[in-house]
Amino acid sequence: MVKLYALSVFRRAPEGGTVLLKGSYDLQSFGFFQRGSVQEFMTFTSQMLVERTQPGGRQSVKEQEYMCHVFVRADGLAAVLVSDAEYPHRVSHTLLTKAIEDCAAANDWKTANTETLRNYKALDVMLARYQNPKEADALTKIQAELDETKIIMHNTIEAVLERGEKLDDLVAKSEGLSSQSKMFYKTARKTNSCCNF
User: Fold this and answer.
1) Are both 34 and 52 inside the same structural domain?
2) How many Å apart are CA 44 and CA 36, to the nearest integer?
3) What superkingdom does the record give (predicted)?
């Protein structure tokens, strides 16, 4: 099952170093006494990734069963998403872009810090909303629906082909049809064979 664990926004200083502006965490899958250490480790890893990513760059780094996705804008505003390895990369980077744009629009991020952004709850809402990528991302939802339709169509075509073979057997065994009717059926079957899969 896909899972998001953390979404954080950082300010990268031109002279070096990063400042955590706001972080949102969903650590319910970890033990109660582990959550503090896990959050601290995710924050440290996220900060390190921001420092090692070029301005204007994106990257995804895998560590065991976790993925860390990072996006650093050219002006120094950055976001990091920690997810499981199964979470779609495209949706992850869409969420990072949305988080950065929302944070920049809602706050003066160049002078902000964790204290001034204490009441900024948009990251919590985004982290909760994007837990299910099929519901949060329209393109992923459409792809899932197309995959489902494709499976249904494939099963339907297989059933029709099986029925066609059974009809062939019945026509061959039928004594009630004249030889002329059987010949007509075989000719029609050959003529329509171009449409079979």
Assistant:
1) yes
2) 12
3) Eukaryota
Residue 165: which pLDDT band, with cuts at 50, 70 and 90?
A: low
CB 126 within 8 A of CB 22: no
Residues 103/9, Cβ–Cβ less than 8 Å: yes
| 122 and 173 together in one domain | no
Q: What is the pLDDT of residue 175?
A: 61
**Which range of residues forms the domain containing residue 60?**
4-136
Q: Is 53 helix (H, G, I), strand (E, B) or coil?
A: coil
- H helices then E strands: how many in the chain? 6, 5
Query: If we measure between CA atoms, which residue out of 106, 136, 143, 131 comes closest to residue 121?
Result: 106
Here the tokens at position 66 are 């976790």
Mean pLDDT calculated for residue range 99-124:
79
Q: How many CB atoms lie within 10 A of CB 137?
A: 20
pLDDT at 81: 93
